[in-house]
Amino acid sequence: MTGIPYVEDRRKKMKRILTALAIVLVLAAVIVGVYVIRGYYHRVGTRPEPAATVSAVCPVMGTAIADVNKAAGKSVYKGKAYYFCCPGCKPEFDKNPEKYVAR
Fold first, then answer.
1. Does residue 49 lie in a domain region?
2. In sequence order, what DSSP letters do the residues of 16-54 get, joined into one string?
3. Torsion sign (Cα): 74, 70, 55, 89
4. Phi, psi (5° rounding) for residue 78?
């Protein structure tokens, strides 16, 4: 026994729509689950982390040095430590420190 063609076509169309909707819902659940597991959901609306603060400035070039542990060089002059942005600045400073300290 065959059904009415119009009704059969509507059933097939409805089945396709429901299948597509189920796939979309499963994908949405997976995406939300990943965000929750990774902690993104909890970070929404929170303040961003503050930018790194500058801990030193190269006296020769005036370049900011974010981490003195990663500075290219260090010199101590009159009891104060000076940090450098590149290897070329340290010898330049050591030649005439008064010129750069006075800035």
1. no
2. HHHHHHHHHHHHHHHHHHHHHHHTHHHHTTPPPPPPPPP
3. positive
4. 50, 40
Q: Which residues of 26-36 are buried (b: 16+ CB within 10 A; e: fewer)?
A: eeeeeeeeeee
Q: How many helices (H) and strands (E) does the chain have?
A: 4, 4
pLDDT, tens digit only, all 103 positions of the chain: 566 777 778 888 999 999 999 999 998 888 877 666 666 555 555 555 555 566 889 999 998 998 888 899 999 999 999 999 999 999 999 999 999 988 7
Range of the domain at 13: 5-43
Number of domains observed in the structure of the chain: 2
* Rounded distance between C-alpha atoms, residue 19 and residue 15, angstroms: 6
